[in-house]
Amino acid sequence: MEKEQIICQCCLNDDTSQFIERYKKNGFVVLECKKCSFNFIPPRYRENVTYGDYKSDDTLMQIRQGNNWLKVQRNLLRYKLIRKYKKSGTLFDLGVGWGHFLYTGRLLGYDVYGIEIANNPYIYAKNDLNLPVDQIDFFQMDKPDKSYDIITMWDVLEHIDKADLVIEKCSKLIKDNGYIIIQVPQIDSFIAKRQKESWTMMGLDHVNYFSKKNIPVILNRHGFDVVKIKSSIEFKLLLMFVVLPWVKKRKNKGQTSPAISHPERQKYFNKITAKPKIILKLFVWVHNIIYNILSFFNIGEEMIVVAKKRGKQKDFNASALP
Questions:
Q1: CB 63 within 8 A of CB 85
Q2: Is 171 within 8 Å of 223 (Cβ atoms)?
Q3: What is the pLDDT of residues 251-268, one digit of tens each?
Q4: What is the pLDDT of residue 260?
Q5: DSSP string spanning 152-183?
Q6: More confident residue, 249 or 182
């Protein structure tokens, strides 16, 4: 391992002797912190990874042709969880993507706001869905007079090298007794353990790989108490990243096919879901049953973490591990 400044974003360990090589894949390595078991890709492998052009014009075109009703239904399942803790209030979504989560929140009466750094998702969320979204880096965002009841990050924290600073800033933006809700790939999930370095969630665009054991560490240090962790599986991703490659492999009779682009994946999803509404309603009903069963048995490759910010009256030992 070449010498470089490496800091565990989970427990802030900076002793290089306490990092071991866990996985090696496609020209990069995944290290594990021996102190807290956090897995991550060292900074040197990610110097050229940016997100300003994360989704192409062709992907945007496919998103515009997709079924927004179906996307709202998926996000209603997320809000079913959120409403157990906060039924209303101000909600800030960090990394809104195409914006359907924020759009659904507005339909439910939340006072919503979000930011998105990638150009095409920002354009779609701002112009097509007419959402209150800014295109700005979170670290450059400056709204000192605004605080939120809820901050959400859906498949965002795994992309950010300075995860510790993100949670620190979130803590400053959330009201006391407010909530942060995070969805991230789960390195100790049933699927990740089986696939190991072949796990489809493992790649250069994902730098952080949290587990149920260690994600409370980073949250606790910044004043949050974890109140819920549940396994999650995104069937849209399953269709695009597992089913589609399998279909193409069968068509090519087992031969290696060219890499599948984001627009091609989205086009496939649009094709599968281009059904009459009555069929889609049945699909959503079956989807939610399967999703809840898999979540109950902790079968999924991601996890949703709900954490509550402590009031100022509580003392906390920041060095304590769960």
A1: no
A2: yes
A3: 777 666 667 888 898 998
A4: 82
A5: EEES-GGG-TTHHHHHHHHHHHEEEEEEEEEE
A6: 182
184 - beta bridge partners? Answer: 303
Please identify which residue in the block is written with the tokens 């515009």. Answer: 64
Structure tokens at 165: 């600073």
pLDDT at 316 over 60: no
Q: Under 8 Å CB-to-CB from 61, ≥6 apart: which residues?
A: 263
Per-residue tokens: 218 = 């980073």
Single pTM value for the model: 0.89
Spell out the residues 6+ positions from residue 138 whose beta carbon is closer than 8 angstroms to its own: 94, 95, 115, 117, 166, 169
Within the chain, strands assigned E span 19-25, 28-33, 39-40, 90-94, 111-115, 133-134, 148-154, 174-185, 208-209, 224-232, 302-309
User: Count of residues for the chain?
Assistant: 322
Pairwise CA distance, residues 142 & 138, whole Å: 9
